[in-house]
């Protein structure tokens, strides 16, 4: 995995330090008077500083910091037993919300007012779409059709590696990375065994490419969380799209060079 992702990481750093920054300014136009249109953070009223030091504020701050550290710990620990059986990302997030709301660190009314409901609805809808593609077999049908289009088991290893990388990278921008990897891996493994080669390289390619959800606003929860800042779907495509193409090429070349 390191042999694939290290070159990809270096390319990302170079990209953002060179053409990426220029592309960012060209797409977002920060000098435009409309730059902050739709940005809920820019439109938010300024918070007046309090002239007195309220002891309650210090207590709330301590509780907030404790809650943040607790959630970080549980996020990490949730990958291991016994935490894995009891704590999911959703449960941990709800636990943190209950603590800060229950201790009145954040007023419940204010929390509801500042929730980006459009983002929450988008997350729910896209999550349902991704789950539907996964459970119905629609995603696997698409994957099989694309692979067979390029020769299936009769195609060369290099061609199939490119197809698997592109297919995984595209699907993960519309589905969760876990669902994408779980859907394409069995297909790739079966094809590898049919060709008489180890399926490990293709599984590594799938693992790497399923984390390249950078070209859509709903490819991953991180992208959706910044939508209240006023970003449009086209912004992600214009900025993340070129980088996605570059990273697919890097992952493919690295995997063919080092894994086969």
Largest sheet: none
Order of helical and strand elements: HHHHHHHHHHHHH
From the helix content, strand content and strand pairing, which structural class follows? mainly alpha
Shape verdict:
globular
Name the helicity range: 55-70%
Oligomer type: single chain
> What proportion strand?
under 5%
- Please, what is the average pLDDT? 79
**Number of separate strands:** 0
What count of domains describes the coordinates?
2
Which consecutive residue ranges, at least 5 long each, have pLDDT under 50? none
What's the gyration radius in Å?
22 Å
Count of helix runs: 13
Molecular structure report:
With 260 residues, the protein is mainly alpha-helical. The chain has two domains: 2-45 and 116-258, no CATH class; 53-115. The chain is built from 13 helices and no strands. The chain has helices at residues 2-17, 19-28, 40-43, 55-77, 89-102, 108-114, 117-136, 138-149, 157-171, 177-195, 200-209, 221-225, 233-258. Helix 8 runs antiparallel to helix 9 and helix 9 runs antiparallel to helix 13 (233-258). The model has no long low-confidence stretch (mean pLDDT 79). It is a multi-pass membrane protein.
């Amino acid at each position: 995995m390191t042999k694939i992702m290290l070159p990809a990481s270096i390319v990302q750093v170079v990209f953002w330090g060179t053409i990426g920054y220029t592309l960012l300014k060209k797409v977002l136009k920060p000098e435009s008077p409309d730059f902050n249109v739709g940005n809920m953070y820019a439109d938010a009223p300024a918070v007046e500083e309090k002239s007195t030091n309220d002891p309650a504020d210090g207590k709330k701050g301590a509780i907030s910091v404790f809650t943040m550290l607790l959630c970080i710990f549980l996020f990490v620990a949730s990958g291991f037993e016994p935490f894995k059986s009891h704590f999911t990302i959703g449960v941990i997030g709800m636990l943190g919300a209950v603590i800060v709301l229950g201790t009145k660190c954040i007023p419940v009314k204010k929390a509801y007012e500042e929730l980006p409901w459009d983002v929450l609805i988008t997350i729910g809808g896209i999550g349902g779409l991704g789950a539907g593609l996964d459970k119905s077999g629609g995603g696997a049908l698409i994957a099989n059709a694309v692979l067979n289009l390029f020769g299936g088991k009769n195609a060369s290893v290099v061609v199939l590696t490119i197809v698997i990388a592109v297919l995984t990278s595209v699907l993960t921008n519309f589905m969760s990375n876990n669902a994408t990897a779980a859907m394409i891996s069995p297909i790739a493994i079966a094809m590898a065994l049919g060709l008489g080669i180890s399926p490990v390289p293709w599984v590594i390619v799938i693992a790497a490419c399923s984390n390249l959800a950078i070209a859509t606003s709903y490819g991953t929860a991180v992208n959706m969380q910044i939508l209240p800042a006023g970003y449009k779907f086209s912004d992600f495509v214009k900025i993340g799209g070129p980088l996605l193409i570059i990273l697919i090429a890097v992952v493919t070349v690295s995997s063919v060079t080092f894994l086969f």
